[in-house]
Amino acid sequence: LGKQSLNNHYEHIIIGAGIVGSGIFRDLSLHGEDCLLVDRGDFNSQTSQSSSKMLHGGIRYLENFDFALVREALHEKKTWTKLAPHLTKEEMFIIPVYKESKWPLFFVRIGLFLYDLLSGFKNPRFKTLSKKKVLKLLPELKSHELKGAGMYSDAIVEDSKLGLECIYDALNEKCHALNYTQLIQVDKKNNYELTLFNVLKNEKFKITCNNVIFSLGPFTDQVLNQLNIPWENVIIPSKGSHIWLKQDALQIESPMVLQTSDQRIIFVIPQRNAILIGTTEIALDENEEMFNIQCSEKEIEYILNNINEYFPKAKITKNHIIRTFAGIRPLVKDGNKDRAKVSRSHKIFTPQKNMYVVCGGKYTTFRIMAQDVIKKIFKDSSKNYNKKLSLTPLRKRSKFAFESKNVTEEDIKTIIDNEMPQTVDDILYRRLSLINEEALDVSKDKIQNLLKSIE
Ligand SMILES: Cc1cc2nc3c(=O)[nH]c(=O)nc-3n(C[C@H](O)[C@H](O)[C@H](O)COP(=O)(O)OP(=O)(O)OC[C@H]3O[C@@H](n4cnc5c(N)ncnc54)[C@H](O)[C@@H]3O)c2cc1C
């Protein structure tokens, strides 16, 4: 997959290979178009590997009456569990309810019924659990004033892997993809001339195209301003962080939704020999670097305080944390001042002829975002769009989805040959999705040498 000979000109160039750019790339490839996908870092290394790793309708958006979005997202969740069964898993989530909870039990019951209804009853049906049953499932959970729980279905996903596999699936003699390639200049001549910069080799080169598609997620305003494209800022950057806890930190087998004292929710999701907990939701500090953003001490404290509130006996401390990660929600301004209430639907802009900007949305709805932008491009060039093509099942191209088996030198060689990694971290955190490096039978130096040997 790594051996591509680039063209001087493409019909489409997609800037930004998060899940949205990867989805657009795949759909264009399925339509037989020629295109190039580029990303400044590794593919799917920013927001799209920093999500809560759920394909979901968004139980919380019911509160905002965003029923159309929930319905669409639940449909997409189901679709991807069929198109990529090796990268997704449906699970029953538990919402414990206390006397003082913002959502009382009758409200949870109505909400979960609505959720199942919006899924067209394709979700496994919701349940309510008595206090006794909840404590049987979660023996360490705080029992004082516990009223019971709701239990409903959503899916978990290998987030960076799904994006990577969309890219691998799309590569062919007409469709190419480059990681570590930053767009640094756009010139409008007869068509667009893009100056690209290989950040690892420190080399500039130029390629032309008819259509430029920006799928830059939270980086949209920053990049379009830097490139001097006529643009009014649309993004409200909203930071969210997670922690991975050691598996033995909590006795928990099902994922949970916890209502926090500041009227939010956080997810606790056991997976791959660890427990994922998050997220926070805070404004970005003015001068905070957005690329490769990190989780702060204050956020760790917030997450630990909330989890200890529900599991006081577990006494979770920083020593139980394996790793932390952070991302920025690419929320698009809609007049709402409260970040939690800003709609998660996506928007498409055309700041110049043959230039398309797509942002907002959710990981779960990336296929629809790709469809909408391509429909627009095809309409502008009088081509027919076939909405069925993106329903083609994903060809499984990578190893180690949801796996925690030990990783050997042979595995690393296969990944280097087939999955376009450029750095050790690309292999560890996206191709292998490692949470804990203990599963690695090969040293990082050895991996670095293997990478060098193919240069
Ligand atoms: C904390 C958190 C939890 C979330 N949880 C969920 C969830 O559970 N489920 C869900 O459905 N959604 C979730 N979301 C939302 C979801 O993660 C995002 O909507 C989605 O990942 C955005 O994808 P994207 O492709 O638009 O952006 P990104 O993944 O950020 O991709 C944009 C890309 O543009 C690249 N780029 C930037 N500048 C340049 C340049 N000059 N040249 C080339 N490339 C460039 C970046 O390197 C980046 O890879 C969550 C978001 C956050 C922050």
What would you note in describing this structure?
With 455 residues, this protein is an alpha+beta fold. It is built from 11 helices and 18 strands. Strands 1, 2, 7, 8, 9, 10, 17 and 18 form an 8-stranded mixed beta sheet that branches. Strands 11, 12, 13, 14, 15 and 16 form a 6-stranded antiparallel beta sheet that branches. A hairpin with a 3-residue loop joins strand 8 and strand 9. Flavin-adenine dinucleotide (FAD) binds next to helix 1, strand 8 and strand 16. The site of flavin-adenine dinucleotide has 39 residues, from helix 1, strand 8 and strand 16.
Q: What ions, cofactors and ligands are bound?
A: flavin-adenine dinucleotide
Overall mean pLDDT stands at 94
Q: Kindly report how far apart the N and C termini lie.
A: 14 Å
The number of helical segments is 11
The helix content is 25-40%
Backbone shape: globular
Tell me about the biggest sheet? Answer: 8 strands, mixed
Instruction: Please state the CA-atom Rg, rounded to the nearest Å.
Output: 22 Å
pLDDT under 50 segments (min length 5)?
none
Task: Please write the string of helix (H) and strand (E) elements.
Answer: EHEEHEHEHEHEEEEHEEEEEHEEEHHHH
Give the quaternary arrangement of the chains. Answer: single chain
Strand content: 25-35%
What structural class do you assign from the helix and strand content?
alpha+beta
